[in-house]
Write a structure and sequence with these properties.
This is D-isomer specific 2-hydroxyacid dehydrogenase, NAD binding domain protein. With 171 residues, the protein is of the alpha/beta class. The protein folds into two domains: 1-41, no CATH class; 45-130, 3-Layer(aba) Sandwich (Rossmann fold), CATH 3.40.50. It has helices spanning 3-14, 29-35, 43-49, 69-72, 92-101, 120-123, 139-157; strands at 19-21, 37-39, 52-55, 80-83, 106-109, 128-130.
Length: 171
């Protein structure tokens, strides 16, 4: 769980929600404790038991349609899914079908599988909230992004591997 996931966990806790998470690597015990977060090794088992699923991961080949039709069907009918990470992480056609059929209670999206080309069937649904992706549009967010760029440039200039290097397998 990256910094964004941890920020989401803090917001969820502020609303009295229990925080559960799945990640490639488990957090250090002190971070889990500070977030009062419960780790699930199995994403499928976690998804089947949660009331609210918040997606907070990058788009990589391994996360493309991470929430595919099979996994979406594991969700409880009263569950809500929120995606503020990358649109390609959810199979939008499967999500739309399930929302229409009442198999998932609702969705909150600010990213879409085909970028700005929002699925028109999603727009018709009353159990979906659609927003523009603007989570980083804060002074703090933009400053942090700029500082990250400077660190990467300086690290590369010093002859070291930049910490946020884009590799071909991520494209």
């Amino acid at each position: 769980m990256g910094r964004i996931g941890q920020a989401v966990a803090r917001r969820a806790a502020a609303f009295g929600m229990q925080v559960h998470y799945h990640n490639r690597r488990r957090l250090r015990p002190e971070i889990e404790e500070s977030l009062q977060a419960t780790y699930w090794e199995s994403l499928d088992q976690m998804v089947a038991r949660m009331d609210v699923i918040s997606i907070n991961c990058p788009h990589t080949p391994s996360t493309f349609h991470l929430m595919n039709a099979r996994r979406l069907k594991l969700m409880k009918p009263e569950a809500v899914i929120v995606n503020t990470s990358r649109g390609e992480v959810i199979d939008e056609n499967a999500l739309t079908r399930m929302l229409r059929a009442g198999e998932i209670a609702g969705a909150g999206l600010d990213v879409y599988e085909h970028g700005a080309d929002i699925n028109p069937r999603l727009r018709e649904l009353k159990n979906v909230v659609l927003l523009p992706h603007m989570g980083s549009a804060t002074v703090e967010g933009r400053i942090e992004m700029g500082e990250k760029v400077i660190i990467n440039i300086k690290t590369f200039d010093d002859g070291h591997r930049p910490p946020d290097q884009v590799v071909p397998s991520m494209l």
